[in-house]
Amino acid sequence: MSASARAALHDVLVLGAGSVGLATALMLARQGLDVRVIDRRPPQPWLPPPGFDTRVYALNPAVRRRLQALGVWDALDAQRIGVIAAMEVHGDAGGRLHFGDGRQPLAHVVEGGALQTALVAALDARGGRGWWRAGEPAGVRIDAQAAWLDCAAAGTPGARLLVGADGARSWLRQALGWPEQVRDYQRQGVVANFRCARPHGKVARQWFCAGEVIALLPLGGNHVSLVWSAHDALAGTLVAGAPGDCARALAGRIGEPLGALEEISAPQAFPLRLVRVPRISDARVALVGDAAHGVHPLAGQGLNLGLADAACLADVLAARGDGPDPGDAALLRRYARQRAEPTFAMQSVTDGLHRLFDAPGPLARLLRNRGLDLVDRISLLKTLLAAGAAGQDPDLSSNA
Ligand SMILES: Cc1cc2nc3c(=O)[nH]c(=O)nc-3n(C[C@H](O)[C@H](O)[C@H](O)COP(=O)(O)OP(=O)(O)OC[C@H]3O[C@@H](n4cnc5c(N)ncnc54)[C@H](O)[C@@H]3O)c2cc1C
Fold first, then answer.
1. Which whole-number Å values give the CA distances from 75 to 70, 81, 129, 168, 379, in the listed order?
2. In angstroms, rounded to a whole number, what is the distance separating the alpha carbons of residues 116 and 111?
3. Cα–Cα distance, 293 to 182 (Å, whole number)
4. Is residue 367 part of a domain?
5. Which atom of ligand 1 is nearest to the CA of 112?
6. Does residue 373 fall inside a structural domain?
7. Is the CB of residue 308 less than 8 Å from the CB of residue 391?
8. Does a structural domain hold residue 400?
9. Ligand 1 atom at shortest distance from the alpha carbon of 171
10. Domain of 309?
């Protein structure tokens, strides 16, 4: 190894400065590790738009607590955070499911730009922008000491642990030749924000209709965020439409439960894919976030899973004490083992629900709507489902 290469050796390199990569970097830096984050795009200054960021995320209580412990949650503007106190799910033939007693929030809805800005500020607060490198690697090399990224003009930084947080089409996953099983849902997630004429009452509403899933999440004030898993062709029409077209198309599907909707941010669409990644760690490398799994957004869980990956990796590394170095294969296998079950469970539930409501024919429709009604009447099952979505162990005491 050359002297210059040795000089560029860090404890941890995180490839990808999305929310998951930034959170991973922050958690590991707080353990005293020397961490660098590499992304092709520098962190963009984000100013709160008048109509809310188009990308918003429903974050569960477990993730909120973790962000609170990092000092990131309290840096968010509380006025702009939506609270989900209850949830209504509507089937496509009268079936209905209701969660939440309004006492404990089921989730909070946070703007993507606000979360990233708060994470960047927390990293900067540790001593400036030294944690950041602009770069897009062309190659990766792993030897006994470190993993090295070939970033052309940005040099060849190396680290004892390389964390792949480079999103759904992860370059790192592909460069390492790690297998992936991909199913294209042939749907796009269309997102847009609206002002609603009637109060949303802090209720998240979801409809399964004609193989599509539509959700309206409560934002601050009388505002809601739409997530519409629409067939590819419809998604294209919604995104290309004039202001007002999306609200009209929505009213055609679900009526106007919140009165007239006024568009406050233009619709954007994101392709939806199930991505199963059987291997997420090896000596010196671990994957987190969408690089490690793709899930259907019907349960709003992709970022929750990714931030739980970050927390799990940080906990596993913290528990090693003075033990092995952070790129040790057995240590990283422990991380991968701990993440396998929650990831598999979430992918199975969301994919199963998608398939259930995609199945054509009157019998399938009857069974799934009866199923929703049945679950609605069994409080134990509802507790288990709600706790799973909340990222926590269920408290079953009230169901005894
Ligand atoms: C419609 C929709 C709604 C959703 N709603 C929710 C929700 O309510 N709640 C929830 O929990 N989740 C939700 N999700 C899922 C959520 O959006 C993702 O799980 C999350 O954004 C993934 O974050 P990430 O940091 O892993 O990846 P990304 O945000 O994709 O970040 C990847 C980063 O890596 C960088 N990068 C990529 N390749 C390279 C390269 N080769 N070199 C350098 N840099 C690179 C990119 O520039 C980017 O900064 C939703 C998803 C969709 C599509």
1. 10, 12, 19, 28, 36
2. 9
3. 10
4. no
5. 21
6. no
7. yes
8. no
9. 41
10. 3-355
Query: Angle 165-168-173 (CA atoms, 0-180°, nearest 5)?
Result: 65
Ligand 1, atom 44: nearest CA belongs to which residue? Answer: 39
Amino acid (one-letter) located at 272? L
Choosing from 37, 38, 39 the residue with most ligand 1 atoms within 8 A of its CB, the one to mutate for a pocket test is 39
Ligand 1, residue 170: give the atom nearest the CA: 38
d(CA 158, CA 116): 25
Cα–Cα distances in angstroms (integers) from residue 143 to residues 16, 75, 161, 362, in the given order: 22, 40, 11, 58
Residues 6+ apart with CB under 8 A from 240: none
Give me the phi and psi of 310, to 5 degrees please. -60, -45
Token couple for 29: 């830096």
281-282 and 285-287: which strand pairing?
antiparallel
Residue 179 lies in a domain: yes
Give the distance (Å) from ligand 1 centre to CA of residue 370. 35
pTM: 0.93
**Cβ of 166 less than 6 Å from ligand 1:** yes
Cβ-contact 250, 238 below 8 angstroms:
no
pLDDT tens, position by position, 261-308: 999 999 999 999 999 999 999 999 999 999 999 999 888 889 999 999
pLDDT in tens, 326-339: 999 999 999 999 99
